[in-house]
Request: fold
Amino acid sequence: MRNKGILMALFILALFSASSLSYMPLYALGAVAGLCYYGTKRALSNLAVSRRLSVEKAYIGQEVLVSVEVNNQTRFPLGWLSLQAENLANFQVPDPVAKAGVMGAKGLMALNYKLIGICRGFYHLGGLRISGGDPLGFVEESLSWADRGHGLTIYPRITRLADLPLPRPQPFGGIRTNQRAYEDPSCLGGIRDYQPGDSLRRVHWKASANRGKLQVKEFTPTISAECLILLNAGEAEYTSGHWAALGELGVETAASLLVHFASRNLAVGLASSGADPLSPDVDGFFFPPADGKGQAEAILTFLARVNVASSKDFAEIVSIYGRKVRWGTNLYLITPGWTDRMHMMVRNLKTQGKVPVALLLNPDEFTREAAAVCAGVFGVKRDRLEGGIHLDRYR
Reply:
């Protein structure tokens, strides 16, 4: 009680007073103090608290407004109310304490505070410390409000890659065009009668047998390439203690490539051997190449949560998902090193018409074998001045 000194002084005066009337103020104040104590505790324990975020996904350094709505469900008013956000290791909270004035009976009040994410991931917001007191200042009480499962996804850091010498996409992909300059041999558009000058490689032998005359294939003309980013997040590929540095570098590289391709309306996908803490039973992740804002957001959300995993070998990921994409797709392999098994898988995919590009997180792992089968080999480094990524072309 804030005013317990006043009550104590009145009690001492009443002891030395000859008049019984001196006890009346003491009794009155005691009754008021007891009512405030009971009413304040009951009001605080019956507060209805809800929390809402301005966004559920944000970039590193972006301010996120957290709105907390408090409803006094009792008929006892509160003289003041304050909320203190829990300290979180991966967030900055510029002003963790939000205060408000009188909250009437059955009143509703909104308090706000801000969060700033400092590293990628999916994080719960933690609990709140709620404090309040009666209007007369007799009682001050506090209680803890547990987290109700609210989460915030922080995307990886993005580096602009517009000026980097990445290999140009092949003129095949998913965007239709009326120009006949390019036809995607993996996308059959129909069949027609054979005409003089048609290549025998375009003959559809099964349709020809059914119709009794030669039929040739017609392919869908396209002008845009598909891109598949393959992120190596296998525990065996990273030596002890290197995932925190090289792994984060790989995730940022994948996110930057994704944004680079998506901003050019290219169909982009992702395959990874990493683990998602929200989907612990999934062994390997694959997003088939597609265009659109929804595709980019889904992949960025996964990259925000991805972690090192010990399940599937990256070479197997390359082999399985590299075969699922169409002819002419650029394969961007983000990996700390180059292994013999990976080399074999990439060489097989190259013979199938895929275009592999290696991005090595450890520049010391550059090998002639990688250069022999890849359209380009890059070393990925951290930019010490700006904190982003930098690519050095080896071939």
Observations:
- The radius of gyration is 33 Å.
- The helical segments are 4-15, 23-45, 205-211, 243-262, 293-305, 314-322, 340-351, 368-373.
